[in-house]
Amino acid sequence: MDIKQYHRMIIDDISLIAGVTTRAMMGGYVVYYNGKVVGGLYESGFLIKNIDAVKHNFDSIRYDIPYENGKPMIKVPDGYELSWLESVFKEMYGYLPFPKSKRKTNTQ
């Protein structure tokens, strides 16, 4: 399976979780949960932000770097249950900031 097929399969799956959206970015996809970035789909796989508060949800944790000079992220295990992933996203939500606004301000 090529990377585009893999991404499409994951996006189709996680889009069943209420509040999940994705946005294509630099060959991968950013994954949002209720407006906050929770992770992304990269060449190295489906990764979520490295937040200590959710690590107890994993039997074992694998880390991966999403892109050159990126911070280590937690690799979502293959065969995850959608309900499990949704609970992880809900738990992460309180620890994540909203994305910064890119709105330009008019200064005169």
Fold and architecture overview:
- The structure is a single chain.
- It contains two helices and six strands.
- It is globular.
- Strands 1-2-3-4-6-5 form a six-stranded antiparallel beta sheet.
- By secondary structure, the protein is of the alpha+beta class.
Order of helices and strands: HEEEEEEH
Helix proportion range:
10-25%
Which descriptor suits the 3D outline? Answer: globular
What would the average pLDDT be, to the nearest integer? 91
Low-confidence stretches: none
Cα-atom radius of gyration: 15 Å
Compute the separation of the termini in Å: 53 Å
DSSP strand content: 25-35%
Strands side by side in the biggest sheet: 1-2-3-4-6-5
Query: Structural class, from helix and strand content?
Result: alpha+beta
User: Major sheet, described briefly?
Assistant: 6 strands, antiparallel
How large is the count of helical segments?
Answer: 2
Q: How many distinct beta strands?
A: 6
Give a summary of the structure in a few sentences.
This protein has 108 residues and is an alpha+beta fold. 22% of the residues lie in helices and 26% in strands.
What's the layout of helices and strands?
Elements: H1 3-14, E1 20-25, E2 28-33, E3 36-42, E4 45-48, E5 63-64, E6 73-75, H2 82-93
Antiparallel strand pairs: 1-2, 2-3, 3-4, 4-6, 5-6
Structure characteristics:
6-stranded antiparallel beta sheet, alpha+beta, 108 residues, single chain
